[in-house]
Amino acid sequence: MRYLNEHFVPYDDNTQPTWRVSGYKETLTRTPNEALLTRPKTLSERVGPVRIEEKLMPACVDFEHTQTQAQGQRIYLRGRVLDSDGSPVRGAVLEIWQANASGRYRHAMDATNPNPLDPHFDGAFRLCTDARGEFALRTIKPGGYPVPQHPERWWRPPHIHFSVFGDGFASRLVTQMYFPGEPLNAQDRILHSVPDAQARARLIAQPMPMQAVPQTDHLGFCWDVVIRGAQQTPIEQTDTHATNHRTNSETNSETNGGTPQWR
Amino acid sequence: MALRDHPIAAQSEVPTASATVGPFFPAHFIGATDHDLTRRHPQGAQAQGNMIYVTGRVFEAARVPRWNTIIEMCQADAQGIYAHPADPRHAQADPHFMGWGRCATDQTGAFSFLTVMPSGYVDPLTQAKRAPHLELSVSGSGLMRRLRTTLFFADLVDNTHDPVWTVVPPARRDALLLRSVAPIAQVPCWSIDLVLQGESETPFFVD
After folding, report:
1. What confidence score (pLDDT) does residue B79 get?
2. Residue B74 is nearest to which of A49, A56, A202, comparing CB atoms?
């Protein structure tokens, strides 16, 4: 088993969003004025909750039910949770939420949105990655929406929110996934708050070949999430996890052999 | 728990960029007992130790209460042990202690956790002596990345040798202190204001 050790590094400001974002006024009054302090990495900075899936049970969100009659373009989203060392993360809990096809969230904070709620769409999903670190989700493509009460009149492009629980509090990630080819992507203040172009590009899902999508009436997209790496060589264990140990070449050949066509 | 396998990718990648939680985090994602760190299950056995409430309020600039902010809290158990495998003593951790909780602030910016008083511990790598403390993250609309901080208890133990306490400029340390306030239903209560920006701003740490 591998987990964070004391060698993990702070996030790189170039590949993370700026704290203050032009046109997003809430960032101006909620971002600290003082510089962040650097602290040593003791145990408390390296650990995190264990067996969180027992608390945040994936079964409590029945997306098959909420889905079937929802209005909008049906999409199939498949991806992986990896860590920055290139390892799949199995058993990672994902919380996923999004607007409906008309760009409205089922949330009290969106009550003034003039667009209708969809009685058949909740827009909230909880999943767990499988033994390969993969997840799959059937949903509908969310609508874009105007950022309210902003004089410069900018719109959020269609996007899906992801919250990821890895194996440590330091690996927690909350992010947003975007869709390829969307005109609104080019002017989104939140997407463009990430300085590095490659880091921005990695927030945009890839189209999946239609033949690779399990359902003929869904458009397919794939997207990988990368959480902070363990930054350490694997720890050899004597418990049941030891049976999963393989060399890199073995793992690669097996993975390639079983890789779906769309990869 | 989440497990990392051996690397399969040819080269490492930088972590995905963070984004704001935004204002629309589904309310039903926060379960009725998510604020309770003392149990793993609503009907499960309760953790060992002295129960405490940890309460507070969140403020943005100009001391405006900030509602709809999501606070997550992590801590060691009553013996100062984490159940996480990185802790050499994890096998002795309290099996009923969740050690993680979250809640959203209400209209007045208030939040509340039920937990047990953590113990300090000696860090296995650095041998530094950690005072009892709570690990917090703050996220929400207007926060493009999460804010992380560590809270300590006032007048409980000597915090002055704690390696995180000592990196905080002395003039700002008071802002990390939980203070004993009136009990809630006879359970001792510790409270703090988290100020995201402005006077008496809470010290936050590099993530």
Report:
1. 98
2. A49
Contacting residues of A for B84, CB less than 8 Å apart: 3, 46-50, 167-168
Q: Min CA distance, A244 vs chain B (Å)?
A: 8
Q: Which of A156, A200, A218, A228 is catalytic?
A: A156
CB under 8 Å to A256, separation ≥6 — which residues? none
- Is 50 exceeded by the pLDDT of residue A242? no
CB contact under 8 A, A39 and B21: no
Q: Which fold has domain A13-257?
A: Protocatechuate 3,4-Dioxygenase, subunit A (2.60.130)
* Residue A1 with chain B: CB contacts under 8 Å: 3-4, 85
For the question of residue A159 being annotated catalytic, the response is: yes
Q: Is A24 on the interface with B (CB under 8 A)?
A: yes
pLDDT tens digits for range A121-177: 989 999 999 999 999 999 999 999 999 777 778 999 999 999 999 888 999 999 999
The burial class, CB within 10 Å (0-12 / 13-18 / 19+), for A240 is: exposed
Strand intervals (E) in A10-144: 74-83, 89-90, 93-98, 124-128, 134-140
Task: Name the residue with higher pLDDT: A10 or A233.
Answer: A10
**Which chain A residues touch B137 with a CB distance below 8 Å?**
169, 172
Hey, are the CB atoms on A84 and B13 less than 8 Å from each other?
yes
A24 is catalytic: no
Which residue of the set A120, A161, A172, A192 is catalytic? A161
Token digits of residue B124? 């296995």
For A40-97, the pLDDT digits (tens) are 999 999 999 999 988 898 765 555 555 678 999 999 999 999 998 888 999 999 999 9
- Which residues of chain B are within 8 Å of residue A258 when distances are taken between CB atoms? none
CATH T-level assignment (fold) for domain B40-195: Protocatechuate 3,4-Dioxygenase, subunit A (2.60.130)
pLDDT single digits (tens) A99-116? 999 999 999 999 999 999
CB contact under 8 A, A42 and B164: yes
CA pseudo-torsion sign B127, B129, B132, B138: negative
Closest CA to A223 of A76, A12, A68, A17: A76
Domain coordinates of chain B in residue numbers? 40-195
Q: What angle do CA B21, A148, A66 make, to 5 degrees?
A: 55
Picking from A110, A165, A97, the residue whose alpha carbon sits closest to that of residue A137 is A97
Number of H helices, E strands in chain B: 0, 12
| Mean pLDDT of the region B36-58 | 96
Q: Can you tell me the ipTM of this complex?
A: 0.95
